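pinned: reference chain
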Amino acid sequence: MEKVGNHNSNSRKLFLSLALMLSISVASFAQDAAPAADATAATAAAPAASSGGDAAKGKELFNANCAACHKLDAKSTGPALRGVSGKHDMAWIYKWVHNSSDLIKSGDAAAVKLFEENNKIPMTAFPQLSEGDIDNIIAYTSEPKAEAAAPAPGQQLPGTPNGQEAGVSNNVILGALSLVMAILIVMLVLVNRVLRKVAAANGIEVAKKEPSLPIWKAFVKNQFLVLVSTIFLLLVGAYMVYGYLMQVGVDQNYEPIQPIHYSHRIHAGDNEINCKYCHSASRVSKTAGIPSLNVCMNCHKTISEVAETTATPEYSKAFYDEQIQKLYKAVGWDATTQSYTGKQEPVKWVRIHNLPDFVYFNHSQHVTTAGIECQTCHGPVQEFEIMKQFSPLTMGWCINCHRKTDVKMEGNEYYAKIHEELSKKYGVDKLTAAQMGGLECGKCHY
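pinned: its structure tokens
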């Protein structure tokens, strides 16, 4: 029989490939474990906080009395306070906290300098804080800044796309699987060649595959199958065309990316800011309007970063802080000097809700007169990370709302007279918007 090849050589190559894959995997896991070990060592080497007071009580006092104007590591209305005990002696700090104005009037050089460096904004006096309370606050401000710990192997950092942190190990696994598949394919090709040589050496003739009828020819010959398929395709096509035409101009769930990421979940949800605080025009105007950036700055003059607890698996704290910096750049706000630079940039917001020109809708009539909550039409905005069009805003959707919604009469004199007359006419106590003329064409189209 003819010699068909060296099988030991192929086996040796396969084992060498598997050994190479195991080496790469071990090296990758060692790299992933190294940052965690470094983080543990850094934590152990961190210096202890100042023991001049109770830092835990100081944190509570800081949040209750100081956080409105001060931050630990960034300038706000007042200067950053971390390490302030190293800049002034405690006797001076007691006087400053109890009554900074008196200290400035006395001509104290440090007090005057601090006052002028912070735009001459006077600090609120806190005579109610004892020296022990101030010691606790100073202990809190003397704590070293905590460094962010490195994630454990395989753990995903908040705000990073899925798989980004574990990308190295995943790539190794995929590469190893690809290599195994390639080896199997090569082995199958070699086995096929060996079998053909064995068959030829033994005089065995390999049967040739008989040509079969193409599937499309077999389909054409079956007239019943052609008829059924044609009817089915016509029905599916008609359904698809009808569905497409019915969706023309309907942008439900439209969720564009805005130039500055604004989270309704944080503002309307976590912080419980009323919708009409930002969209104040909805009370008195046809449109709700896009809030001016000055409205944002009412809060963000002193809020230059978000809390750690604000981060989600999709959006990190660094991501939200970056959006606040975009706001500062747009309005020309210098957080260091706490002043406007005069350099502004327009923000090109992407409109989400857009009714046709031939439709009239008045926000004030629905919000102020009818007393309808914003969530009725715009959905649970307090849960939306990215704002979207919740309702279809079609004519049928509006009509259904008018048919089932009773007119709110409690404390509403606007419809009192007409409501009294129509309720007698229809013999009901409550009138719907439709019964009060809400289905007349001229109400929305004129």
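why pinned: Residues 214-248 form one domain. The first strand starts at residue 333 and ends at 334.
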